[in-house]
């Protein structure tokens, strides 16, 4: 009982740590502390531990969330800065030179920007697409009962789709801007480059000049102005330009079409301050006066000179002496000579005598140093191009001509060979076998059609040699398809070429002469002929005719290019025409050309027979009017006109004009013969083609609205062609086979009267006509 009275009524106090401490300090009741239930202590401790663990987790979660928020904030800010930077570079291409300090070439800036835009937009497009698909499926799959949730998902999917479309549009727009921008010359100015560096492969990415106040002669500059012309043309229509490079008030270069020339090369002739003057000329459309626009150019300040003395050593090798005595006043000069891409300090004086002979492209670097400048940089670069002589004379091009009689026989030569006196011998090798000839222009016959390698070995008088090689492909010549004439197979044309006069009559049929390898056509002149090569083809069906060129003047120049052309011959002379066909095979990836010759000669006749005829119809029977009155003879007179109309009748002698009726369809060959007073004759033939008239059917009736029990007359007058049988169907279970029947309808109705006609050739045709029958009010 005493123990219970000592316990406080508050259980929390009893179980608290403070109560235990106070009770343990009471000397009167030392043992009562031991009677506190031990099982209650772990329970309170567990609750406290759990609470402390929850607090710790909350703190950790807060830290993680804070870290994620900071990360996404930094990512968002960096993305905004990145996009702002990218947009600034794209819309301000002049600032793209920023990348050059990171060793990125101007030629690669466009590729870099394209990749940056593509990668970033690809990631954003993918993320937005996934979000749009999620919202879209939520909007579709959400049930109608959840209207609010479905509406929210639908709105979000629409906005996400709009954002996706905007991103893709912006992507395409930026890509188009990048593609259309010239990052090598973003400011649309004139680029000035060291021409020697452009010609060298070793400086192909480092040839542009930016400073012009401290230059050394010899100096050759290249002015690239294509971008500048494109920019200026947006404001004015340039008609020409004038350039004065060396400030001597003389025009060094002028041109009427700046678009055709992308760059100009100019070599300065010594040390001087040059002030180039560049003017674009255009016409003011309001006043029609000539206007000029001057372009800004830097002054070209050449203040020192270096003399170069060349000493030829062999066929194309050379030895060069460099003299920089003009630079004595500025201190010392170091020379660096590059052999095998290794720079060696070779000489320290104003004159440089390299011991080596230049046998390949080499670089000589001149470094100027004094108390103010001690860095080993090249102040002037000399590029020694030992192939200059070869380039000038186009040595590496082997030319060949094919024998027209034997396509396997070729004659070789070297194109535009100059300085012939430097070469002592030629050795021609075919397919890396034995030497076939030592002539300058050999002729060789191959054994087969295929790819062949031709090599010529050139030697000079010091026994130095060099070789030039070329590969040629000898294709088997194509064969033109000839007309199929079984009646006279030995006397056919060489191809399917067609030549017709103004009356569409062929003048080329069986005119090909093998001994001349040409068509030999005799015709009256003046005359206009129609040349048609649309039907020309070769036996190899993989080849297709793609182009035809015509030379009508035999001047080795093609005047017309088309498959079908017309040409008028006016003079009484002989014409030699050359036609060249171009055939291409997409399967074999080959192109071959075939030529044909046509000789057109004036036909000298005492007779000039001309016929004009007109047909009233193309269908028989037809009246044809013939007029021969324009026919003429020289030194004689016509006494008789004879007509043979090709109807198995005797020829008719009549006047120069006659009208003749052809009753039947057929292809008639009318022969017209004129006889002059010395009883010599001249004939001409014309074809008259008459067709069968088109079959037409007609139904006629005395009335088409009538009354019942009253007769109606029918006939088929107006039908064209020979009719064999009639079959009338009056649509009231009655019929007739008479050509002109009379019929009575016994009731009011709309009857469809049908006529079926069988023509003499067995063909059948049907026609229908409506007849309206009314009740007779009188009855």
UniProtKB/TrEMBL annotation:
Instruction: Domain (PKD): give its ranges.
Output: 726-779
Composition bias of kind Basic and acidic residues appears in: 35-57
> Where in the sequence is the signal peptide annotated?
none
Q: Where is this region: Disordered?
A: 24-57
Matching InterPro entries: Ig-like_fold, PKD_dom, PKD_dom_sf
PROSITE patterns referenced in this protein's UniProt entry, alphabetically: PKD
Protein name as catalogued: PKD domain-containing protein
Which species is this UniProt entry from? uncultured bacterium (gcode 4)
* Taxonomic lineage from the root: Bacteria, environmental samples
């Amino acid at each position: 009982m005493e123990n219970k009275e000592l316990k406080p009524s508050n259980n929390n106090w009893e179980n608290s740590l403070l109560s235990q401490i106070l009770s343990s300090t009471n000397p009167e009741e030392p043992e009562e502390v031991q009677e506190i239930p031990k099982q209650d202590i772990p329970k309170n401790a567990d609750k406290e531990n759990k609470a402390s663990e929850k607090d710790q987790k909350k703190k950790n979660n807060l830290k993680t969330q804070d870290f994620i928020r900071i990360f996404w904030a930094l990512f968002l800010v960096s993305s905004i800065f990145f996009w702002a930077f990218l947009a600034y570079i794209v819309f301000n291409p002049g600032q793209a030179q920023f990348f050059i300090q990171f060793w990125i070439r101007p030629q690669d800036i466009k590729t870099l920007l394209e990749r940056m835009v593509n990668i970033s937009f690809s990631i954003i497009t993918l993320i937005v697409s996934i979000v749009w698909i999620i919202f879209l499926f939520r909007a579709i799959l959400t049930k109608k009962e959840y209207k609010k949730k479905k509406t929210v998902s639908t709105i979000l999917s629409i906005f996400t789709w709009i954002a996706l479309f905007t991103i893709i549009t912006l992507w395409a727009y930026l890509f188009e801007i990048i593609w259309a921008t010239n990052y090598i010359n973003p400011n649309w100015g004139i680029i000035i480059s060291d021409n020697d560096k452009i010609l060298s492969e070793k400086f192909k990415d480092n040839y542009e000049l930016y400073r012009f106040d401290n230059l050394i002669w010899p100096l050759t500059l290249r002015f690239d102005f294509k971008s500048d012309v494109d920019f200026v043309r947006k404001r004015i229509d340039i008609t020409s330009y004038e350039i004065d490079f060396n400030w001597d008030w003389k025009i060094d270069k002028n041109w009427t079409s700046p678009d055709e020339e992308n760059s100009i090369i100019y070599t300065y002739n010594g040390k001087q301050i040059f002030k180039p003057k560049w003017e674009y000329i255009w016409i003011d459309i309001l006043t029609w006066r000539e206007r000029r626009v001057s372009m800004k150019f830097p002054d070209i300040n050449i203040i020192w000179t270096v003399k170069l003395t060349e000493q030829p050593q062999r066929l194309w090798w050379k030895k060069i002496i460099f003299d920089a005595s003009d630079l004595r006043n500025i201190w010392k000069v170091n020379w660096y000579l590059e052999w095998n891409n290794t720079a060696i300090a070779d000489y320290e004086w104003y004159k440089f005598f390299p011991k080596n002979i230049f046998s390949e492209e080499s670089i000589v670097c001149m470094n100027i140093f004094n108390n103010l400048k001690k860095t080993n940089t090249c102040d002037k670069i000399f590029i020694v191009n030992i192939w200059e002589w070869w380039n000038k004379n186009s040595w590496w091009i082997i030319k060949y001509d094919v024998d027209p009689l034997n396509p396997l026989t070729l004659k070789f030569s070297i194109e535009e060979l100059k300085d012939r006196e430097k070469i002592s011998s030629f050795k021609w090798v075919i397919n890396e076998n034995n030497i076939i000839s030592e002539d300058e222009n050999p002729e060789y016959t191959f054994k087969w059609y295929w790819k062949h390698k031709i090599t010529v070995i050139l030697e000079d008088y010091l026994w130095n040699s060099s070789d030039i090689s070329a590969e040629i492909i000898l294709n088997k010549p194509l064969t033109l398809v000839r007309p199929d004439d079984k009646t006279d197979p030995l006397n056919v044309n060489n191809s399917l070429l067609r030549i017709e006069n103004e009356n569409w009559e062929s003048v080329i049929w069986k005119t090909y002469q093998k001994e001349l390898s040409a068509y030999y056509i005799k015709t009256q002149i003046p005359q206009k002929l129609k040349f048609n090569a649309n039907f020309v083809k070769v036996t190899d069906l993989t080849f297709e005719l793609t182009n035809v060129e015509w030379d009508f003047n035999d001047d080795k120049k093609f005047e017309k290019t088309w498959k079908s052309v017309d040409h008028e011959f006016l003079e009484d002379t002989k014409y030699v025409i050359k036609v060249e066909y171009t055939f291409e095979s997409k399967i074999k990836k080959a192109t071959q050309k075939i030529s044909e010759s046509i000789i057109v000669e004036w036909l000298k006749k005492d007779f000039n027979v001309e016929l004009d005829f007109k047909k009233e119809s193309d269908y028989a029977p037809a009246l044809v009017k013939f007029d021969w009155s324009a026919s003429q003879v020289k030194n004689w007179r016509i006494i008789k006109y004879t007509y043979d109309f090709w109807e198995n009748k005797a020829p008719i002698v009549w006047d120069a004009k006659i009208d003749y009726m052809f009753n039947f369809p057929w292809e008639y060959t009318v022969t017209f013969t004129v006889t002059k007073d010395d009883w010599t004759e001249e004939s001409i033939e014309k074809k008259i083609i008459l067709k069968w008239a088109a079959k037409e059917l007609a139904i006629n009736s005395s009335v088409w609205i009538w009354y019942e029990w009253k007769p109606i007359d029918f006939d088929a007058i107006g039908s064209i062609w020979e009719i064999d049988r009639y079959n009338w169907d009056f649509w009231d279970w009655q019929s007739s086979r008479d050509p002109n029947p009379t019929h009575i309808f016994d009731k009011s109705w709309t009857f469809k009267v049908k006529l079926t006609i069988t023509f003499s050739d067995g063909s059948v045709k049907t026609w229908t006509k409506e007849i309206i029958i009314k009740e007779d009010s009188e009855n």
